[in-house]
Amino acid sequence: MQEIKEVRFFPIFMAANAGVLLEIIATLIDEIVVGNLFTDEVFASVNLIEPYTFFEVFLAYLICVGGAALIVRANGAGDKERMGEVFSQTIILCALSGILLSSVYVAFTPELVRFVADDPSVYQNSLDYFKFMRFYPLVDMFDTFLFTYVLYRGGFVRFYIAIFSRIGFNALLSWQLGSMMGISGVGLASILSLLIALSIKLTFLFSKKHGLRFRWYLNGRDAASIAWLGFPESALFMYIVIMEVALNSFTLDNYGAAGVAAVSVVINVFEFVLYLSEGISEYEIVAVNDSIGKGSRECMDHAIRVVKRAAVAEGSILIVLILAGSKVLPEAFDIDDPGTAQLTAIMLSILSPAALFICMNRITAIFYQYTKRIPRTIILFGMAIALFPSLFGILLGLVSIELTAAGIAAGPLAALLIMYGYVRCIKKEKLFDYSLTSPDRRTSGR
Fold first, then answer.
1. How far, in Å, CA of 244 to CA of 255, rounded?
2. Within 13 Å, how many C-alpha atoms sit on residue 276's CB side?
3. Exposed site from 181, 206, 268, 279, fewest CB < 10 Å?
4. pLDDT per position as a tens digit, 153-180
């Protein structure tokens, strides 16, 4: 019984949720400082560079999530050698990817900036901001890996210290360096504050229990398997962009700027629920991989029971919170027009049931991701986040703008029902049916 309780739910759940919220705050620091120190044109310039930051985050998740999960799996099996191999290879991949991406950013800086900020009113400010931010991958690749590694292995104290330090130093340095150096100083502050957070997380590796010996280990097939394992979660960023572009473009053409304002709030709340569901999925990643490493069906059963209950509980609570906050959220998103605010409140009420299905989709997809059914994960995430919310939102939006929210809400439900029908009727499985990997291959990830 002690073995079952080894992976505790609430420390990982709370740390992951706090991490998501604090990371969002940390990324907003630049925009808050820029908004107060500089003009609206400068503020726009910072936002125009964001596609390159999103791509770097996609690449970091591609490498780091799978690597950290396989370390947990090897730890469950007591395979110290395999832990060292995955740890070393992930560090090497972070270094190579960071160097490659930053080199591309440096080599093609004017062209890349012109591609997203070709207007003379924003080009120079975007170029100045990118002056330091093009080196961001050199630090953030390692920070993303240590973020997952420290969280997955129980370093909750350092986890919180690192995040709060990043926020505090970023706010302080952004203001100081922004005042002294202009917009380029804000970019430099982002890198320096991230370096401080990374340094704090690195202290987690100094202990005998959690430290792993680094050695040169780079296996192409192994590296590809790590990237393939991490791809579904990194693909979430692409799915979100697809949904936003499709729904905002449709709404702008059919209902104008006021309609876009209302739909944007609905999309933001949808995404916020998706981000918060990460708290459950982070526990699931640790518990499932630990169970596979141990070869323990009992541990796996316990983990799946916990995540299903947690998904239902969190989804139900979020439904109530969205309904209760539907009249307040439009004001929080700075919607001043009374008619648009009322429309937004109605659409949020229609959206609210989606919270439960988003949580259920998340845990189902993550379960498949780490039990060797990654194509299901990619398809389920794609249907629930990108394809069906966009398709149903547009089709129902042709009837009325309020029904756009119903279409968005129906997306995760339809995805879950289709996956359930597939595994029950075609594969003849339960939704959470699984078989543990064999003892001789359970830590390989190959």
1. 16
2. 19
3. 206
4. 888 888 889 888 988 898 899 889 988 9
Which two tokens mark 193? 């504050």
For residues 45 and 183, is the Cβ–Cβ distance under 8 A? yes
Phi then psi for 93, rounded to 5 degrees?
-65, -40
Contact 293, 77 (CB under 8 A): yes
Read off the tokens for 379: 């398809």
Q: Which two tokens stand for residue 421?
A: 């029908």
**Hey, what amino acid is at 254?**
N
Neighbouring residues of 19: CB distance < 8 A, sequence distance ≥ 6: 147, 151, 159, 163
Per-residue pLDDT tens for 82-135?
Answer: 988 999 999 999 999 999 999 999 999 999 998 877 778 778 888 898 898 999
Do 198 and 143 meet the contact criterion of CB atoms below 8 Å apart?
yes
Tokens standing for residue 380: 């389920």
Start-to-end CA span in the chain (Å)? 30
The tokens describing 148, both together, are 């997952």
Residue 199: C-alpha distances to residues 29, 146, 191, 222 (Å): 20, 10, 12, 28
> Token pair of 407, please?
């279409």
Written as one letter, the residue type at 444 is S
DSSP string, 137-194: HHHHHHHHHHHHHHHHTT-HHHHHHHHHHHHHHHHHHHHHHHHHHTHHHHHHHHHHHH
C-alpha 308/C-alpha 277 separation (Å) is 12
- The three-point CA angle 257-259-264 to 5° equals 95
